[in-house]
Amino acid sequence: MPPSTEQQAVIDHDGAHPARLLAGPGTGKSYTLAQRVAELIRNGADPKRMQLISFTRLAATDLGSAIATSDLGENEPPESATLHSYCFRQLRRRTGEAFVGRHVIDAWEFNNLVRLDLGRRLNMSPGRVSEVMQEYDAAWRTLREPPTFPQRHAFEAALEDLRGVLHFALQGELVHQFLKMLDGDPTFDPELDHLIVDEYQDLNRCDQEVIQRLADRGACLIVAGDDDQSLYGFRHANPGGIIGFPESFETCGNYSLTECRRCSDEVLQPALRLIEHNPMRVPKDLHSNRTGGEVTAYAFRGPRRQARGVAAIIRHEIDAGVDPKEIFVLLPRKAFAGAYLEEFDKAEIPAIDLANGARLLDEDEIRRLVYLLRFTADREDARAIRGWLATTHGVGVGSVGGVLDLAIAEHLNLHEAIDRSGNMRVQNAYAELVAFADDLDPEQPTIETLELAGQMLELDPERRDQFRQAIETVTGPEGDLGEVLAVLHEYREQPQVGDGEQAPVRLMTLHGAKGLSADVVVIPDLEDVLVPGDGEVVEQRRLMYVSMTRARYRLYLCHALFRGGATSYAGAGARQPGPQRRRSRFLDEAGIQSAPGR
């Protein structure tokens, strides 16, 4: 299909000044940006002097794939990356030893490694360490002053000492560090002629300031996104950045994509009625030329009947010819997944729980396998050694702490400090890691290495299969070990499953479905104490809007009238067993009536 008039206007942007592209759900934003890049390259732009930025690695990969399939002639596509990845790479290149060899840690590693090690060194409770780090993280992302507290200097010194041994970086600090580097070096040349930033509404103030600075140094800037789809307030996203973008420049191109090519009009209109209740948004004239869709809401007497009803809906859709992979179940609470999986199993519905899939990577036995693979790939990986010790029975924080103190005091690598420590428990655990790694070949295909490593560690076959599926999800069965280890954190952020012939129905969180779409979407548990619950109502309304617009044709919205047992305590204000539940106010705002569910 050729570009629409709206899309062509973006593709032909003259580049003499910045531009904002507001693109509603399903309006072809990625296609438009890909065609813009292809047009620039066909007209002589150097792909090596172009940078594409997106909020998640998955989105960056999808955008890069769209560009790669465009007509680029003999040229290679430009780089597409997350802002964190771009900043990390620049810091590694331009700050000497400060970031060389460092790896970004995830939440499990912070909680089980860094937090405990810092607490021990500072005689500070783990909870207090978490509070302080949350304050630093907020300050970095919002450009506020760092927290002030009596132990601030000791805390920062201990954190830097630990970084020096374990060679880690905190995700929240990366962009802030790059901004500091830009401020300290006015001669820095990003060597960019064109900078295209997708999902701009999900960037925080620090992210957006970095983008502005890069544009100030010569890059033609286009930002794309939708303030109505800003969902990451818990990460300090600043939707005001895209709302006020045109006012930040003397001259700014202002483009919109308003034709939704994903959702049928029957799905789109209730979603638009809902989002129009949000204040301080950019008004949009979204429309769809697709028809034949349907939105249905059901009220069930209780959560178990709701689970059975959802299973009956899905069974009906599959029997009518819908491919299971074209059915999403989007959960406001991942803890409720079990009831749906039980009923799906009874109805012989193939399904996979992606809402809780990330928990797999937080299990000690899986972490142990990951750290063995990391160490096999890089014998100098101190984070892998520390993680292995943390998952070894009988090796506590105190034992490892003595080794870390020695490494810091004597400026030793972690494995050198282990050798010199005289701590037999730590030395034996490290020797076991080395022995296992000696029997693995990092050059082997990843799946073969994984199978052998899992057998060595006597990992339960079912858990090993689940982990293999996670790997194949992010890299495919042929991914090499280095690639797998580099992107496992993306699975933790947004678990996915491949689109093979036997791909099942997918249970996901509302956040996890962003960027995806299916023919049929079911959103259960839509009770007011859950959605919006005690969350920030404006952002929760955006989350519901995004979730509704994942559906191409049929959208089912379900809720329970009563809750008993453990689930009666879920949600804001739910304190007594068995209370009657009011359906979500969002259903009222969308103008949707509920029919009795069976």
Notes on the structure:
- This protein has a 7-stranded parallel β-sheet.
- Strand 6 (194-197), helix 9 and strand 7 form a beta-alpha-beta unit.
- The two termini are 43 Å apart.
- It has 23 helices and 15 strands.
- The longest helix has 17 residues, at 126-142.
- The mean pLDDT is 89.
- It has helices spanning 5-11, 29-42, 57-68, 83-94, 107-122, 126-142, 152-166, 171-184, 205-216, 240-243, 265-275, 303-319, 337-346, 364-377, 382-390, 397-410, 414-421, 424-438, 446-456, 461-475, 481-493, 537-548, 585-589; strands at residues 19-23, 50-54, 79-82, 103-104, 168-169, 194-197, 220-225, 253-257, 294-300, 327-331, 351-353, 505-509, 518-523, 551-560, 594-596.
- The proportion of strand residues reads 5-15%
User: What would you call the structural class?
Assistant: alpha/beta
List unreliable stretches of 5+ residues: none
- Radius of gyration, taken over Cα atoms and rounded to an integer in Å: 25 Å
Strand order of the largest sheet: 11-12-10-13-14-9-15
What characterizes the major β-sheet? 7 strands, parallel
Distance between the termini: 43 Å
Write down the overall geometry. Answer: globular
Count of individual helical segments: 23
Helix % is: 40-55%
Number of strands: 15
Overall mean confidence score, pLDDT: 89
